[in-house]
Amino acid sequence: EIEYRKKQEELARLRGEARPIEWGSQIRSYVLDKQYIKDHRTGEMRHDPENVLDGDLESLIWAGLEWKAGRRETVAATEEE
User: Fold this and answer.
1) Consecutive 10-residue runs of the chain (81 residues): their mean pLDDT?
2) Given this structure, which CATH class describes domain 22-80?
3) CA–CA separation, 36 and 1 (whole Å)
4) pTM of the prediction?
């Protein structure tokens, strides 16, 4: 019981804050007609969607890690200023 509870708490910590999925809560757009992909949390933008769709995610992953670690502001925060 105690071990199970510890595992559940660790999983909850790793998952982070859960938010409801609703209109406007997306974290990434795939805009193929303009040929770019933008992560709405970090502001990271890529102009090579074919490479991203083929699995070249390194810059998006690093931007997400920096954002999660607090070294990168959210786009919404920077747009409000």
Assistant:
1) 88 75 75 86 92 95 91 61 43
2) alpha beta
3) 48
4) 0.55
